[in-house]
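User: two proteins, same treatment. go.

Assistant:
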Amino acid sequence: MVRAMVGGRAAVGNTPGSTRHDDVTKRGIDMAGCCGSDGRSRAGKLLWPAVWLLIGAFVVGLWVWERQLHHHAEVGPHGGPLADWGDGAFHLEVVHDRDAEAVTVYVLDRWAKKPKTTDAATLTLTLRTNPATAVRLEPVPNEGDPPGRHSRYIGRHPAFKAEAKLTGTVSGTAWGKSYSGDFSQN
């Protein structure tokens, strides 16, 4: 039996320069796809790019869900319009009570479903009226709020009686960061 190197592979054959491989060893393994020329399996060469592609698709899907598809309702659980605070980290619901000349602002989670507390001492609601009207909102403990944290703020002003539908901005400082969010009653 003569062994020779042909095309970078060991060839086994009956004559010098023969390219016929031994079916049991080299050719049988290559045809099954178990070993490539660098020792990696063909399945492995295709598997890892596919795994990374799936991981990438999963990460992009999470990003899309987080940014767009976690969509909340246009109104909160108390029937008021929502203001986005903290780039979707949480929401404020503005509830207008014309008869009491008051506005209650509820701090809600990112899905605008459950109360979320802040350490804000006060909030400011600025109505888009002519001229603009700024109202200070004071914290009023909500059931379940821990000491020093608030999920409800209330403010009173005669402008709340005059305006049928409120449009404005709620701003404040929570956790050392300034936030602002627009709202509009429909």
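Protein 2:
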Amino acid sequence: MKAPTARLYPVILMGMLAAATLWVERLVQPESTAADGPVRHIADFRAEGFTLTQINSSGQADTLLSASRGVHFADDGTTHLENPRLRQTRPAMPSVEITALRGTIDREGNIVDLTESVRAYRGSRPGEPSTTLETSALRIRLDVETANTDAPVHLTRGVSTLEGTGMQFDNRSGQLTLDSRVRGSFVNAARQSAGAATGTSSRPQAQVAP
């Protein structure tokens, strides 16, 4: 996920008007501030019902970000989203889709902070079941393809279920780590036919990897 300059905003999909095009250009440009007054946190551009895409080095769209509404603020370059949906598709890798009620993108387009009813789904592949994660807050680093949270999480992976507080996830390796207060039932893919072991973990961390 290494695109030059702003990684999240190279191309606008499906019918955004000229004003929205200008809005996207402003998202990726540093904002100058007036020298003769205090900087105010006021929205300068808005867009309704839009979809943005990231193009990889092969010229293919691999990451889509859509939202019912986006509001850009010139003073800090952030964009606030309503009902954001992030979807990533890569050859030979499971698809990833993340939704939430609210979200914020930083000036560079590298960090997406999602809040309220966050749900992440990672598709299955041979030898690895699908994974669903639910939490109240999630920070996504698009440039390095990682996600983390300090909030409680509920994880479903195939027939396994885990709960914990705090999480680190690496999409490239598929490894997920729960930081503390881990409990639930985990069934290794090779042992699913033999049944599950259920209980509360006394270890500070639990790792789930392919």
